[in-house]
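In keeping with the milestone schedule agreed at the kick-off meeting, the structural modelling team has produced records for the first pair of proteins. Each record is given below as a sequence line and a structure-token line. The laboratory manager (R.T.) confirmed that both were archived under the project's standard naming scheme.
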Amino acid sequence: MKYFMELTNPIHGGEGWDLGEKLWSPEKGTWKIMQEPRAGDIIIHSVKPKGGRHHFLGISIVRTSCKSLKTAPPKPDKWIGYETYYQIDLQDLSYFAQEKSMQGFLDEYKLQLDKIKPQHSFYNEKGRLQPSQKYLATVSSKVFQLLMNYLDFNFYSYLSSNHKNSNIAPRVEDEEEITTFNGGNSLPTRVTTRVSRIIRNTTIIKELKTKYKNKCQICGKQIKLPNGSFYSEGHHLKKLGGTYKGPDIPSNIIIVCPNHHTEFDYGSIAIDPKTHLIVDIDKSSEYNGKPLAYERSNLDNSFLAFHLKNIYNQ
């Protein structure tokens, strides 16, 4: 098992970027580190808001190794214009009980970190230890131990609970016992911690699909499967994960076909919260300016407005 640190900003919490669910980067020489994570490896997520400082948000498990895509992230920002991009799928995002600062960690554990130089990791080692200007960095098992202690995070509990229902086997190379530190000595101890996870209520989406007969709310189409059943997908207007942390409730979910689900993810389409007319970036689209395939009284206009402003970006 290997460990990595993502150093990112809130824009990567948007739809398609999926903070805690995917890693993105341009495909070029300086980003070859994206080829290193394998299924079962661990990603620690650190977020730096505009004008703020890095803080540790949560932890996730690598689901699939790096793949190369010709499609750019929905909001590529300074990463626009590349021919191909790296993408890594993640799973089992858990938020830390407290979003502690990275600088606080570097200051508190400076003596221990100085003893294990060089790391060439997520922080600069010259002078005062400070966060580096990187997107992804390796984390040694020794530094990972210190991080888990600083964050009061029960890593073994997290790992065992998530791997029980996972077909991913952890990598065993470079694996070491995770311990906490007591009085400056490395001593295994038992700690009681609180772990916060995103738990999706799949029953809600199933009930919505049944109620609306698996019909896409944009085009009204159903996808019939060979066994006679129908297929559709549920989309959260205000995303559950990342920095948005939207609610898993019916009023935040629309039922759509796979094509329109992708368009919602990428901000190509939206629903006007005032008129409930479809808004499409392709003004020639057959759906642009048209009413929904069907109305829903249990759809919250505030979530439609959130998606329109933050994802469709109008």
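The second protein of the pair:
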Amino acid sequence: MKNTIFAFKDESPKYKQIYEQFKLFIERGDIPAGDPLPSIRHLADSLQVSRNTTLMAYEQLVAEGYIRGEGRKGYFANALEPLLFQDALVPRHKQTKSVTPVLIDFRAGAVDQTNFPLKIWRRIANRVLTLEESFRYGEPFGEVCLREQIATYLLQSRGVKTDANSIIIGSSTQQMLIHLGQILMGDFPSIVVEDPGYDGAREAFQFHHFTLETLPVYETGADLSKLEQVKSQLIYVTPSHQSPIGVSMSIQQRQMLIHWANKMQGYIIEDDYDSEFRYTQQPFPALSSIDSTRVIYLGNFSKSFLPGLRLSYMVLPELLINRYKDQFLHFESTTSLLSQLTMAKFMEEGEWNRHIKRMRLVYKRKMQCIVSELKKYFKQNISIIGEQSGLYLLVKIRLNRSEEWLIERASFFGVKVYPTSIYFIKNHSDETVLKFGFSNLTCDEIQLGVKLLKEAWS
């Protein structure tokens, strides 16, 4: 081999550069399987390095399986599976198609970065780091100080009467559902889920092999008459802001559901999804405020504050709390101790309530902006679902085009919109419906995004 092939290019160890060059030659097929490599002495002389340097490079290649040593015969290249290196063998300009960069992303679940209270959160987080209690493992069911703050907040905002002992802290709604399923699966083999409904919850229940029965949900609300036909004693619902349709249960429907749970001697799993952000009325009282003995309440800080914080919570009825704690007593907490302590201080100092109040106004303006833009550009070709609350809306699109086509065309113009087909089980919509989040977009970005969609779908 010519010395020019091995021109040393940087300050990294020379043995490493030799190793990487031979690795590349073998992966590309420049050194076919079975071909000999230069001897250690010959390679060292040609590269003007020590024999120890070339020996180290060869030993690394042997350890990873690229070459083999055969006694006094020397070193030989090993055969490699071509599929592992197919991308490396294809010229870069042929590896990828031309992809339009994403200009506007209508993803739901993001948060407004501009209005995030970064300085306040950082100040409190820095203070927490000076506390002695920050330098330990967390409590298995969550820090008492945070559970106490959540109990106070739930009473004030959702009418839920509970205490710190009944609250469990976790990392996400889905993770808490998996833990919950572990203690319920022995007594309850099946569960009713909304259709359409949150697909992440379905996956959690299917993880424990629950049989799924469905409750149809329409723009007018859930069809609770169907509960007369089910055998399950468990039901999972999102009553304050149904996921994904956004409709809320009336007080009559809530009472019917409570009556059903008492009659069946079962439980309602209430996921209080997006409950903080209603734009025409105050948030509705939780189901758990009506009857806490038959309702398992779930809440989280992801949508309303910060997804990366990984903080959720669950309020368990008295009959389940001891069973849950016995089951998971010896498991470590699934969420950060520092995040819990910081959030507890954040709530204690009133910053949480101020944040929610401020963001309700911010998101209301954004909701009005996206609704206005969609109606301006698409007029009678669309109808909008869920504009009264939440951080996203659904759009029925009457353009005789499939969900897949609309999403692909939007992507070609640099706009990401999202499907709703993943939420349906049996109760499929006859029309194409897409999901538009807006929480992390400015009004200018929303306007640009809708304008580009008009061009894409015309």
